[in-house]
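Marked as duplicate of an earlier ticket. Keeping the data here for the record.
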Amino acid sequence: MDKATRPYIICHMVPSVDGRIVVKGWKLPPSGLAEYESTAETFGADAWIIGRVSMEPYAGKARVPVRKTREPIPRTDFIAKRDAESYAIALDPSGKLTWKSSSIDEEHVITVLTEKVSDDYLAFLQSKGVSYVFGGKTELNLERVLQKLRKEFGIKKLLLEGGGKINGSFLAADLIDELSLLLAPVADGSIGTPSLFDAKEGRGPARQLKLVSMEKRKGDMLWVRYKVKR
């Protein structure tokens, strides 16, 4: 895909030195979260994107009411706000997030759905003022989603901060332009927990990288940036 038709994608994560990303039990220094946020801010991104499970604590819990009318809702994108300073984007193919608000810390919410979601759920999102775009009938086409985010919301730079499967799907589709890794001073040693990229069983979609910079940060963390070679 022509990068001019989609946002520039930076995968920004805090992995252990062996590539694991479940931080529970790591005993990171208090400065760890601050370092993650401060390094993220240097990119001046227009939006950030994560998956449903990671977004649940931000979305909250609200009730999805049953509509009184049975008139179907067309499967067309719903744009509640185009001029936000920043956007929080959730990949939620089945429509399971029950949003309490249309914003997270003043960042407008966009949720990415498939067409299999219910009319009740679409009506619920509209009532909350949550923007949504469709990425496919039953599965998400990431290229299509990214094109819509660029065209409809003007998003030019996007931080990918997902779990292993979401990051892996972007990697497999060759949609990551840059890696920003804040390496935690931890050797995790676990087997079976999510890693930075979990694209597929067996041999994965290996991508060649070019080192951009390295910088020591607080708490023995190392900030390493790569660009993906093409």
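See parent ticket for discussion. The radius of gyration is 18 Å.
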